[in-house]
Amino acid sequence: MGDISRLVFSLSKLGIKALERLFKASVRVYDAENIPDGVSILAVNHFTRLETLVLPYQIHRLTGRPVMSLAHHGLFTGPLGSYLDGVGAVSTKDPNRDKIIIRSLLMGDHPWLIFPEGSMIKDKKIVESGKFLIYSATGTRRPPHTGAAALALRTEFYRRRLCHLRQTDPALLQQQLKIFDLSSPDQVSERETFLVPVNVTYYPIRSQQNAIEKIASYVVKDLPERIVEELQTEGTMLLSGVDIDITFGKPIAISPLLKKRKIQQDIFSQHPILPDDVLPSRPLMRRIASHLTRKVMASIYSNTMVNYDHLIAYILKYYPGRRLNLFDLAERLYLATETVTKLKSIRFHSGLLHDQCVRLCRRYHQILADFLDVAEKSGVIQMEGNTIHKKKLRMKPLFNFHTIRRDNPYQVILNEVELLHPLTRKLRVVAEHARWLLRWRLRRKFLRIAKQEFAEDYKEHRREGESKPRRIGAPTLYRRFRAKTGVLLVHGYMAAPEEVRPLARYLHQHGYTVFTPRLRGHGTSPEDLALRTWEDWLQSVERGYLVLANSCEDVVLGGFSVGAALALLATTNMLYNVRAVFAINCAMRLRRRSARLAPAVVLWNKLADKLVKDDGRRHFVPNEPENPHINYLRNPISGVKELMELTDELSKRLVRVNVPALLIQASDDPVVHPEGSKRIYEGLGSQDKELIMFNSDRHGILRGDVSERVFARVLEFLDTTLTS
């Protein structure tokens, strides 16, 4: 017992590799360099049964050494018991348990895996009144086990004693070696003992009926409720895709803890010391073990990988009102993410470190939707459309310890980060923000992002003699302080905000707040545009929407040419408060059929770049715009390809536009075909829609003889729609 069968261990590795391929779990390891090369005990939190499978495999992969572990005595029966014996597990009730573990550690051959919590802590509740106290399966509260700390202390105690006797008393050394079934002092490691805190965090924690639970219930009738819950929770996590983040904390050296005089006297004693002997230093060692356990537990949970669920759960907990809308929650989540990820002492899930703007404003915010479903099933909230109703929480919620992960995952998620006080303090501040303060902060932030992005792009891509003055491409907010409605006005392809400025000023004079965003790649140089995709343009529109959504109660999206197509497309995405949309000369169908060749030309250019450098490449073609003081004079072929992809995407989503819509089209537009606007009109999902044809042979009808009539019609549409 306590020896590893190489065959069984190898088969176990193969089995875990097969499970990795079968299931959707993604395992990430952090700070593996904290695993000592010599004698080490790895103290791990215990939330699922997966730790006992995943961790030994990952540690072996990282260190090349098989891992030994303690296992509950009830598991050592039948084939499972034989398997555990084969992989070097030791029963918690083995009479030689401590001797086996200390011997193995003295030799330094294998790291040991021990769970200080002693059993699965399904509720993640580890602190009560400032003390580490854990709910046991019986419903009582107990401190975590000190076994891992005690074994580390005793191992280093005997290692130092054996090293001392090697120099001073060879006869007594041989007696002590026999106690641990060691034949030579060379078998004793020269490296000191370390205790390594290890945290395993799962995201997301979800529980529902699944194929694994159904198969198990079919094979074994009347499964205990405890087993059903474990199959539902851990099976769902595996099948639906769970991120398993394993973090190795800083190793704690044990040697400095043994420098107390009483302990030193026992180390240098001239009498044989058996593993179970009561030593004069035993009470002191116990106190040190208790203190060390608290330190280890704090380190384990300080390395919790904070994720979206934690942030949303705390925002909901501390939000002072009983109702909030979905957009408000999304914005608080965004601000919380921006705030807390600056904390250097906290670890964050990789998803929190990406740009959040897109997720914030899009209707299909899957992260929020998934968590709100969890909160609703936990009885914390009730959803009514886009409104979240908080339910009054009981001070001491009752739950079944064995089923809490299924019945109340919201509470489990809260408990998991309870110890991370810098995090929870900042989350509370964000949750308690007054609505006006939240909007003020976010409006400033998104406006600053838009302006800073343009400044950086202009500095990088400006071409002397070709790029227009900065004012042409600068995004601009025309604000009315008491305006209820904001209009997002998007410029066209190869143009800049200056293109729509006359209409923006007109609407501003008539009482509207207007924002003219700059599409990425525009207002700088054609080379910059050649680098961008239609998704980049859409993101510019979405960020503009966030400026207005935090300035006004309602937002109307509008645009010219390609900007019109982007406005229509964005309308299908927006999460909240889009009241209407208007599109002027929407670039749905271009006059030039040669534009359809753009993807092929782009492909040819890429091949030419890789194969030969010759004149066969055509990255740009000349452009003859109506407004040369605004538009580029060279058109990147890649941009035309992106335009085609944009219109294809819009065609698929037109039916999802369900707000009042106004389409304006020049009858003899030389750039976009009027038939495109007719196709848009027919495809719109909105019941309140209108198509107006203006008698004009110009594309740029926002300037020139018909512009005043176009402006007046847009204003009429806004006034009528918003008042109705």
Summarize the SSE layout with pairings.
Blueprint: H1 6-22, E1 26-30, E2 39-44, H2 51-63, E3 68-71, H3 78-86, E4 90-91, H4 97-107, E5 112-114, E6 127-128, E7 131-132, E8 134-135, E9 141-142, H5 147-168, H6 170-179, E10 193-203, H7 211-219, H8 225-240, E11 243-248, E12 252-253, H9 261-267, H10 282-302, E13 305-306, H11 308-318, E14 323-325, H12 326-340, E15 347-348, H13 357-361, H14 366-377, E16 381-384, E17 387-390, H15 404-407, H16 409-416, H17 421-431, H18 435-461, H19 470-473, E18 476-478, E19 485-490, H20 501-509, E20 513-516, H21 526-529, H22 534-549, E21 554-560, H23 562-571, E22 578-584, H24 598-611, E23 620-622, E24 634-636, H25 637-653, E25 661-666, H26 674-683, E26 689-694, H27 707-723
Parallel strand pairs: 1-11, 2-5, 2-10, 3-4, 3-5, 13-15, 19-20, 19-21, 21-22, 22-25, 25-26
Antiparallel strand pairs: 6-7, 8-9, 10-11, 10-12, 14-17, 16-17, 18-20, 23-24
Helix pairs in contact: 4-5, 5-6, 5-10, 7-8, 11-12, 11-14, 11-16, 11-17, 12-17, 18-22, 22-23, 23-25, 24-25
What does this 3D model show about the protein?
The protein has 27 helices and 26 strands. The chain is elongated, with a radius of gyration of 33 Å. It folds into four domains: 6-199 and 248-301, no CATH class; 205-241, no CATH class; 305-433, no CATH class; 463-591 and 646-723, Rossmann fold (3-Layer(aba) Sandwich). Residues 593-604 have low confidence and may be disordered. The protein has 724 residues and is α/β, with parallel strands linked by helices. The strands form seven sheets. Strands 1, 2, 3, 4, 5, 10, 11 and 12 form an eight-stranded mixed beta sheet that branches. Strand 16 and strand 17 (387-390) form a beta hairpin.
